[in-house]
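Backbone shapes recur. Consider a single case.
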Amino acid sequence: MSFRWRRKTWRVAPWVSLRAAGISLLIVVATALVFDHWILARLEKRGLIASDDWKRHNQIVIANHEKKDRQIAYERPKPEGPCGVRSWLGHPVEKQGRTQHRLLVMGDSFVWGSPYLTLNHLWWRQLAIELKRRGYHDVEVIAAGCSGMSTRDELELARRVVPDFHPDLILWGFVTNDPDERLVKQIHTSQLAPPIPGRIQKVLERFIPRLWELFKSRRADKLAKSYVGPEYGYSYDDWLNRIHEGENFERYQQTVADVGRFMNESQTPALFVTLPEAPIRSRFAFSYDKVIPLWEAARVPVLDSLDTFVQRFPDAESTGPNSLVWGINPADGHPGPRTTAFLARQTADRLERDFPQVLGPRSLEPPRLTINDWLPYDLDVSPLVEAGQWELDYPRTEKFLPTMPLGIPTTLMALELPQSLDAIRLSSPGLRSAQIWISTCDPDEGYDTGKWHDLGTAKGTELNWMIPDALARRDVAVILLKADVSSDDRRLRLMLVPAQPSSSRSEGEK
């Protein structure tokens, strides 16, 4: 392209330049796609990055939990979000207890609000499971709180919950952001969002989701360091240290003293429990060393599991893929099943030692086979009269089905108390085929390993999967199901066959 001006020919964007620019652009785009879909995808599978796939998965899981929520609501000390005694479809809680004894756990997102694949992975649910394993069937564990609550918020909620639920013991779960007295600002994520039009962001999220997420994360980190201060707020780690000093910590000391007075006034025993997310001393000791003496001065017994945690797992890495085994998944660092099961065992040990009166007698009665949690929220798992059998509505859409880590949309059913099984059976006139995966508990530590064992795909209207011999005595915690069902009849019947002491299997059964 050229034009003549003042007796001179001017060339604008000659073909050679345009071709070179086009080739350069194609190379840049191809490099970005390869980097996103191959290099970053491999890092994601190794747990080294928290990709957009994991974040979308977590959003789906949280949305399901919110739709299952049947909490007994109380006015929240601060306005946003649900608050109350936790209860959901499959796990109802009533003010009038169903057992002789009741434990109340106070907390924040550790009692609700995180993308646990099943709510049975929450630490207070793990405590309930551990107590039942030990034979304490006459004690109920309930929890009250909501995401973002501080100790002061939990105290205000406890003042309303305790008179209604009459617990025999209150466990105050502690995490390092609990001393927040609203005196130190934390920089908000909205302040760090890139100034790019929404439509362009959606295009980038579609074609290079991992690279775009990496860019946003790095940009936010840089801005957080550039604009920190009392006016804009502080990055999380800096904010965490600042709430443990100065005026904020002085006010927290008063909060803990108020908790001690409340315990004395209500005549309710209490136990302060630290909840480290991983066996990494440096991550928590800065807080515990300051906070624990305050609770001891308030005459509240303290259970600090950090030393025991570190001794049990002395070589835990603070970075890299092995550091992620303690969290829920690469995109969420709340304590995962391995951590919550450990904390539950430590708490159960202390309860047996110092508070046996709140546990009641031990019993050797066999555990009931119960499904108390499921995804999606409208799977509608209903027990039948026949023991070990349920009906469920297989969803018509995959919109609310979790996908990770298999990368396959599946439904999910969780056993209230993990148990070993001999077989899983599924039937329906509208059933064409189905595939099942199971996760089992570690035989020594008792936590749900989250390792998915594929039992295979079967075709027909009446299907049967035998548990492999290698897993025959491992407690099954969660079942994943993907089925092909006719559009007319989507009601399925599920049967779980518990393992027998001397089970015999017919040859040739799958």
About this structure: The CA atoms of residues 396 and 487 lie 8 Å apart. Residues 503-510 have pLDDT under 50 and may be disordered. The chain has four domains: 13-45, 53-183+244-358, 184-226, 371-498.
